[in-house]
Amino acid sequence: MTTRIGVYPGTFDPLTLGHMDIIRRGAKLVDRLVIGVTTNPSKSPMFTLEERMATVRREVAGIGAAIDVVAFDSLLMDFATREGASVIVRGLRAVADFEYEYQMAGMNQQLNRHVETVFLMADVALQPIASRLVKEIALYGGDVAKFVTPGVREELVARVARLGRKGG
User: Fold this and answer.
1) Does the annotation count 86 as an active-site position?
2) In whole angstroms, how far apart are CA 33 and each of 66, 139, 165?
3) pLDDT score for 41
4) Does the reported pTM lie above 0.90?
């Protein structure tokens, strides 16, 4: 019997409740879910790669599925091949996400036709959550408790305080 491996890639800066929803649901679709934590040259991360990986590991520990957290800095399809994945899991929040993700899925299919992209619609209550907006809210002193786990909220508040911003 073949083990079905899925990859859920992202920067997770910070990990949000939306990410956690996709992780929980994606883990049900595969035998092993690899959360690929990456750097994105077009984004300025608030947390280091090591900090983000530690956060993801801590937050997914209680899910009870076969989940690995792995750093990668390569083409997604090369990473998926290296991990033995047959599925890429992606979350969709809105039409704007779909347009971008659809284009990426098409390009990825050109690179490796043996790996399918599966889109999971975000839970309706979580659709507006975006890491970029969560960081902005935290930097301006807003409460992010509705968007992240308590552990991630603590990390955000501490980081904002270290940056000398309002935080809250």
Assistant:
1) no
2) 6, 32, 36
3) 72
4) yes
Q: Which residues contact 134 (CB under 8 A, 6 or more apart)?
A: 14, 16, 144, 147, 148, 156
Using alpha carbons, list the distances in angstroms from residue 5 to 2, 65, 89, 149, 155. 9, 12, 10, 26, 30
What is the Cα gyration radius of the chain? 16
Given the residues 43, 114, 165, 166, select the one marked as catalytic: 43
Which one of 90, 131, 135, 159 is the catalytic residue?
Answer: 131
**Average pLDDT taken over every residue of the chain:** 92
Phi/psi at 153 (5° precision): -60, -45
pLDDT-based confidence at 166, cuts 50/70/90?
A: low
Residue 125 dihedral angles phi and psi, to the nearest 5°: -70, -20
Concerning whether 114 is annotated as a catalytic residue, the answer is no
Could you give the CA distance from residue 94 to residue 64 in angstroms, rounded to a whole number?
Answer: 29
SS (H, E, C) 91-105: EECCHHHHHHHHHHH
The pLDDT of residue 17 is 97
Phi-psi label, residue 164: left if phi above 0, alpha if psi -120 to 50, beta otherwise? left
Helix (H) or strand (E) holding 161: helix 150-162
28 annotated active-site:
no
The 10s digit of each residue's pLDDT in 93-105 is 877 788 889 999 9
